[in-house]
Amino acid sequence: MKGKMKVAVMTGLGKMDYVERDIPQPKAHEVLVKLEYVGVCGSDLHYYEHGQIGPYIVKPPFVLGHEPGGVVAEVGANVKHLKVGDKVAVEPGIPCGHCELCREGKYNLCPDVFFLAAPPIDGAFQEYIAHDAAFCFKLPDSMSTMEGAMIEPFAVGLHAARQGHAQAGQTAVVFGAGCIGLMSMLAFKVCGVSKVYQVDVVPKRLDKAKELGATEIINAKDVDPIAKVNELTGGRGCDLVLDTSGTEIAYAQAVEMLRKAGTFVAVGYSKSGMVNVPMSNAMDKELNIATVSRYRHVYPMAIEAVASGKANIKGVVTDVFSFDDMQNAMDRSVADKMNIVKSVIKIG
Q1: Cα separation of 178 and 183, whole Å?
Q2: Residue 314: DSSP 8-state
Q3: Eight-class DSSP state of 286
């Protein structure tokens, strides 16, 4: 497809603008996707506010966005499983496929992964992207492209649930009721976890957790989460704790409220990169500790869970902004975190 497209670019800290670029031409193994929705991730907001996350430094102009859903507009010569008009969820990371970790199936840990909106690679706040067809997953007719965009954060939750070996009959606690916390709660429910208690300090986020199916919500400003979990479990403690906050207090409370031989899953990054953990208590309990880096092999499972009605991922979205309103979308998403749980950009 020949022509020009509109691209939203970050031109500096807290600054968005638009440029016109050529529509990308798909290679033989790629498809051209006309994007319809792209989610705004916490990492996008962090880059927008601070210009870097750890070693990843934004050098403007830079395109943010790595949660795309859209419609196939053109297919490369070697692509057989997709056709023009198919709705797709786009998995944003493309691994090398040849390194030791890729050969082990742990492609999310590939050191040479190509990942949308991970500097210096431009992201998806644009009208079209050309992407490896193997990482574009067809959506059933019953699913919208907005849901396709939300598959990416839901995949994080599903991978976290799998890392924690979530299963039927368990009781779990999720620290944080932002997007990833809510997606993790939904993922636990999909995996059959019987009871999921959600902890946060923001009332609107806790209300959203209750709306989406959390068994119980705990406002840590009002009550002691450890005491409340002990009360809810009859003093037994919980089987699983998943943290999306990255805070030391959450880690300490998690160790305390877990039963012996329970599992802690770390999803959220701490601001400093360092967290003190009460390891003596963790060792006395022989706790299992798991960590999460993005996801692997979960997009088909995520799509099936949504299509079958097991996970209301579009219910996590609280605000939808027009592509023509990017500056306001980013500014409000940064400034109004007490009310905006998840923002999505409607591209087309």
Answers
A1: 9
A2: G
A3: T
